[in-house]
């Protein structure tokens, strides 16, 4: 579920939309999950029974590219007493909301971010990325397939996105609420905003810096253009399970590994009274997931799953030397990984978007990792773990200082620590777009 509230002019009227009181003749054509969703819309907008409806020409379950298949548009009068202007309220929903289809696996949570790198309205706006938060007006609803929570998309500038990555999304959302022109209490996106919140109020940067120092980053991982090579064995070795695979059948992450990484990325973004990264093997009660009592250490341990793991992935290999490869955007996050995560006793995962592999950095305080201080580089199939001591992290931060200003250097860029047998390369995107990278 997601919604966007940009500024803009009213749109055209539309024919009546089916709702909870649809005639019996249409009931069989009405997706079961839609009744509850429209019921909440009617509660909030009782005077607008016929909102403008937009739907995908080719539905997602028929091969369409967008799982958000339906969009309803409502005029919101705002709240003059709270200095909230009139705006348009777009409510979108997709396949899993309507039919409970389990083919839609991507789940957004409050505090998540989306790096878009383009004005959200195709203009020259500085609003080029998104944060997500719980909708301040739409209440969660019960559907035949479970509870649906409405999330709001909040447009942000690049500097605000970076602050959310370095610290946490919820913290930046709270700062946006304090600046009327940047969102205000309802976090309304104004695509005409030309200044970041840090330019509007320089004191807000101090709050972010203090938060980073105190809390670290709650960003546990990203989807990225990345790869790794095992330099301790020749490339022609048939037993090599490196992530860079040339051929039609690259080795794949097992279902258990994939789920563990997905859960790490998903749960690591939640902000509450529980640990920043809850354990991967949560206790389950009455079909619900409950985290164990807070622990000082993060955990990567996995439960005694009955998932079938290919025989070739059972053995974990210790590597002597590794070469990590990132594109410029992913490489710019390495200082965040080191300073905001590992120095706070946590871990950080890069999950490749161009291949079935992952790189997880872990600190000495992380339990359940298969990389150890004795063998800091270890691979489980195409999943590589790298354990870095605090001393080495500090050294890397010094050597990687120019990554905080990536526009100042040319690609490719290489960093090497021969005594640690570790090499990191920052490469152009085209290297990862090639099937034979």
UniProtKB/TrEMBL annotation:
Residues 12-23 have a biased composition (Pro residues). Residues 289-300 have a biased composition (Basic and acidic residues). SUPFAM superfamilies: Suppressor of Fused, N-terminal domain. One of its GO terms (cellular component) is cytoplasm. The gene is SUFU. Coiled coil: none annotated. This is Suppressor of fused homolog. GO terms for biological process: aorta development; coronary vasculature development; dorsal/ventral neural tube patterning; heart looping; maintenance of protein localization in organelle; negative regulation of smoothened signaling pathway; negative regulation of transcription by RNA polymerase II; negative regulation of ubiquitin-dependent protein catabolic process. It is found in: Cytoplasm; Nucleus. Keywords: Acetylation, Cytoplasm, Developmental protein, Isopeptide bond, Nucleus, Phosphoprotein, Ubl conjugation. Residues 1-23, 272-303 are annotated as: Disordered. GO terms for molecular function: beta-catenin binding; protein kinase binding; protein sequestering activity. Residues 64-102, 105-193 form the Suppressor of fused-like domain. Pfam families: SUFU, SUFU_C. Belongs to the SUFU family. Residues 206-426 form the Suppressor of fused C-terminal domain. InterPro entries: SUFU-like_domain, SUFU_C, SUFU_C_sf, SUFU_N, Suppressor_of_fused, Suppressor_of_fused_euk.
